């Protein structure tokens, strides 16, 4: 009983939303199972049926039975935020990590980041990452992160990448970690956590690769601008002047990060 309690106290719950993830999910499962830190549970959430993701998971688990992996299903496509929140509600670990099905973790991601979180006695940490191509091969373009990030600093930089975050749920309650159902829900969640007085700590070491198809950079620019502006005005309730001030900083840093 005591060893089970110790195991749960160090358990990392990993939440992965799945939507059109059939091409990637076997690799994702292999990657998580290859982590050097082994005390984890993987909660896969199918965001609506019919795209083959759940079937791919079923086939994988028949070949590689692993009780640490669970599959949850939403009856309809309700978006990544609701899928992640379903996973958060089901999480049993002290620690929580988000992972998108098409991104890649380095093998020691969990071990290094958990050690960093404990060293800083932090509730919220994130790491540097590398841009990858359509096959998740690193391009050499690395996004470095600051040592700490406060709410006001975060408003002018979207430097926190979802697949690099780790939370201590003893310090930050689940209701803050759950994502609001808005566009750019991840950024909205980070801002809400920081607005509530928490500080995020950055580990400036690459632990993940962000898969990006070749045509995604130009096609998503206008949509990204609309989403960030909506977050300033509607989610954060900032004035037009404040929104423009933070937006200029965000646009400059976003451009430099990608060139």
Description:
This protein is α/β, with parallel strands linked by helices and 259 residues long. It folds into 2 domains: 1-102, Spore Coat Polysaccharide Biosynthesis Protein SpsA, Chain A (Alpha-Beta Complex); 103-259, no CATH class. It contains 11 helices and 10 strands. The chain has helices at residues 2-9, 25-33, 53-63, 80-90, 109-120, 151-154, 174-177, 185-195, 216-219, 221-235, 240-258, and strands at 12-18, 40-47, 69-74, 95-98, 104-105, 124-132, 138-143, 148-149, 166-168, 200-211. Strands 1, 2, 3, 4, 5, 6, 7, 8, 9 and 10 form a 10-stranded mixed β-sheet that branches. β1, α2 (25-33) and β2 form a beta-alpha-beta unit. α10 (221-235) runs antiparallel to α11 (240-258). The mean pLDDT is 91.
Distance between the termini: 53 Å
List low-confidence stretches: none
Mean pLDDT: 91
Order of helices and strands: HEHEHEHEEHEEEHEHHEHHH
Could you tell me the radius of gyration in angstroms? 18 Å
- Major pleated sheet: 10 strands, mixed
| Strand residues, percent | 15-25%
Class by alpha and beta content: alpha/beta
Q: Total domains, how many?
A: 2
How many beta-strand runs?
Answer: 10
Number of helices: 11
Keywords:
259 residues; alpha/beta; Spore Coat Polysaccharide Biosynthesis Protein SpsA, Chain A; 10-stranded mixed beta sheet; 11 helices; 42% helix; globular
Topology diagram in text:
Layout: H1 2-9, E1 12-18, H2 25-33, E2 40-47, H3 53-63, E3 69-74, H4 80-90, E4 95-98, E5 104-105, H5 109-120, E6 124-132, E7 138-143, E8 148-149, H6 151-154, E9 166-168, H7 174-177, H8 185-195, E10 200-211, H9 216-219, H10 221-235, H11 240-258
Parallel strand pairs: 1-2, 1-4, 2-3, 6-10
Antiparallel strand pairs: 4-9, 5-10, 6-7, 6-9, 8-10
């Amino acid at each position: 009983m005591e060893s089970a309690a110790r195991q749960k106290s160090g358990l990392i719950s990993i939440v992965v939303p799945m939507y059109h993830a059939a091409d990637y999910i076997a690799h994702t499962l292999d990657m998580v199972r290859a982590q050097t830190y082994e005390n984890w549970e993987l909660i896969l959430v199918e965001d609506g049926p019919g795209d083959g993701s759940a079937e791919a998971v079923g086939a994988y688990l028949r070949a590689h039975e692993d009780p640490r992996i669970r599959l949850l299903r939403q009856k309809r496509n309700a978006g990544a935020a609701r899928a992640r929140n379903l996973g958060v509600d089901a999480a049993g670990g002290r620690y929580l990590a988000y992972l998108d099905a098409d991104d890649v973790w380095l093998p020691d991601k969990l071990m290094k980041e958990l050690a960093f979180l404990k060293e800083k006695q932090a509730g919220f940490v994130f790491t540097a990452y590398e841009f990858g191509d359509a096959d998740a091969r690193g391009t050499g373009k690395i996004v470095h992160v600051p040592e700490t990030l406060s709410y006001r600093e975060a408003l002018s930089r979207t430097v926190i990448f979802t697949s690099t975050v780790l939370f201590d749920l003893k310090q930050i309650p689940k209701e803050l970690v759950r994502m609001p159902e808005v566009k750019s829900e991840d950024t909205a969640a980070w801002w809400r956590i920081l607005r509530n007085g928490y500080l995020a700590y950055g580990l400036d070491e690459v632990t993940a690769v962000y898969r990006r198809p070749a045509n995604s950079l130009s096609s998503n620019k206008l949509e990204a601008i609309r989403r960030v502006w909506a977050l300033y005005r509607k989610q954060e309730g900032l004035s037009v002047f404040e929104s423009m001030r933070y937006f200029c900083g965000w646009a400059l840093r976003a451009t430099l990060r990608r060139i």
